[in-house]
User: Fold this.
Amino acid sequence: MTDVQWESLSNWAVAAAGTVYFLALLTHLAEWASLRKVPVAAGAAARDSVDIPGGVAVATGPEGTADDGGAQRAAFFGRLGYLLTCLAVAVHFVSLVGRGMAADPNRVPWGNMYEFTLSGTFVVAFLYVALYRKFRLAWMAPIVLAFVLTVLMVAVLWLYAPVAPLTEALSSYWLVIHVVSAIISVGAFTLGGITSALYLVKSRSVTKGGGTTSGYVARLPELAVLDRVSYRLHAFGFPVWTFAVLITGPIWAHQAWSSYWNWDPKEVWAFITWVVYAAYLHARTTAGWKGRNAAILALVGTFTLWFNFIGINYFSTTSQHSYAGAPEVHGTVQAGD
Assistant:
């Protein structure tokens, strides 16, 4: 295949992945709609009584009743939605491969903000699929799919840039090491931020009305479970982020600019993000911070994380990482990290 054909394949794969993500989102919305009139059950018995992916607890009635029918439909839509999401992730991966193969010479697909966004959304979706069974994440499906679909649309409509060779600063094997670790941690932190946000929503519902027996919020896991899942995701992402920001980043900077640290705006915000997440984990382990305060601090970290990757690129005019910005700045093609 020629470079043009590879780029065309990548573009078509992005469109196909977006379509399948949308179908998966609709399927999961149908899953939750089917459960709308099915009361939430307390205890493991209800979870064992019907195959609801992720362990969404329902109270089922006698076989053939409305409750039983709604639960069975939800189980079907849940499994279908998960399979569609897996398919979308596979097609999404094809788009990344095609993007890298379209360059001459072939390279990793992280040459500009469009490609980094494709990679970031892929990791978010892939981690969701990979951790779906372990953490019973069926309750997260609509939020994750809506997030990935929205960011993909933004990338296609506003960040798209034609395939181009890497800039001199990016032509290094440290690109692979640094950006892989950064993208993995971004995916984990994003899922952790989503969980923290849902914790606050659930907490407000419980505090305000004592909780409800139907609806999406009622079917979220218990607050303790949400808190624990959020902590585990952040605890996984933090050492990877530390490796990216405090080890591979400075080494790459020294190779490119002969200095390990330049107080560049993007470097500063990456360090701010590291400090916020370090404070989050430290507060949990030493001060016993859990629940609402921990969730708020985690969301502050999510804000600094995404502002570092997107905001700095558009609001800073002094960053040496300007190649990580929009598709075109000052008339030149930019690259992302």
User: Anything to note?
Assistant: Strands lie at 328-329, 332-333. The CA atoms of residues 30 and 77 lie 7 Å apart.
